[in-house]
TrEMBL record:
InterPro entries, per database record: EGF, EGF-like_Ca-bd_dom, EGF-type_Asp/Asn_hydroxyl_site, EGF_Ca-bd_CS, Growth_fac_rcpt_cys_sf, Nephronectin_domain, NOTCH1_EGF-like
UniProt organism field: Cettia cetti
Gene name per UniProt: Egfl6_0
GO MF, any single term: calcium ion binding
Designated name of the protein: EGFL6 protein
Subcellular locations according to the entry: Secreted, Extracellular space, Extracellular matrix
Main subcellular location: secreted
Entry keyword set: Calcium, Cell adhesion, Developmental protein, Differentiation, Disulfide bond, EGF-like domain, Extracellular matrix, Repeat, Secreted, Signal
Alphabetical list of SMART domains matching this protein: EGF, EGF_CA
Family, as annotated: Belongs to the nephronectin family.
One annotated GO biological process: cell adhesion
Residue stretches making up the EGF-like domain: 32-71, 112-150, 157-195
Length: 197
């Protein structure tokens, strides 16, 4: 089976038919499925959607159980955690619903970790890191766009000259370069290529 449009987070199962991996949806499996919006809801109290998955957390005074339910806890209520808590060997610890969050100095609230600036995020050479609350994603560098080529998704150079997104002067020629473009004044004209006289 071949899928001309490709299956980003899934497998090609029939002519242009994708079977998405869990947590993804859409014709080409390129969209994150918001599990928090599903019926029945996957979490008892609060739900946080993540890329390809989700995390459950409990209201203050409740403890997250291994099966995703929330159990009332007198000790948790006393600690006053932002995202619920867990008891480890009699010690109460506040929880953060994502690996991209860390407990703040007060030990109760969660603050974002900027994976892009700390170097924890690894994006391929032609992609740039974009930080989000609790996570990050890799986006194509400026001058590149995500395209499905030779069976996979990749960031390919945008030809600004063909796409007509350049700002070259009427009397200049557009020359495409990797990730950008150049403007050169035509014969008989002088200037930067953006201004030609």
């Amino acid at each position: 089976a071949t899928c001309g449009h490709g299956c980003k987070y899934g497998e090609c199962m029939g002519p242009n038919k994708c079977k998405c991996f869990p947590g993804f949806t859409g014709k080409t499996c390129n969209q994150d499925l918001n599990e928090c919006g599903l019926k029945p809801r996957p979490c008892e109290h609060r739900c946080m959607n993540t890329h390809g998955s989700y995390k459950c957390y409990c209201l203050n005074g409740y403890m997250l159980m291994p099966d995703g339910t929330c159990a009332s806890s007198r000790t948790c209520a006393m600690v006053n955690c932002q995202y619920g808590c867990e008891e480890v060997k009699g010690q109460v610890q506040c929880l953060c619903p994502s690996g991209g969050l860390q407990l703040g100095p007060n030990g109760r609230t969660c603050i974002d970790i900027d994976e892009c600036s700390t170097g924890r995020a690894v994006c391929s050479y032609n992609r740039r890191c974009v930080n989000t609350f609790g996570s990050f994603y890799c986006k194509c560098q400026l001058g590149y766009e995500l395209k499905h080529t030779s069976g996979r998704y990749d960031c390919v150079d945008v030809n600004e000259c063909v796409a007509n997104t350049h700002r070259c002067n009427l009397h200049a020629e557009c020359l495409n370069t990797q990730g950008s473009f150049q403007c050169k004044c035509k014969q008989g004209y002088r200037g930067s290529g953006f201004d030609c006289a």
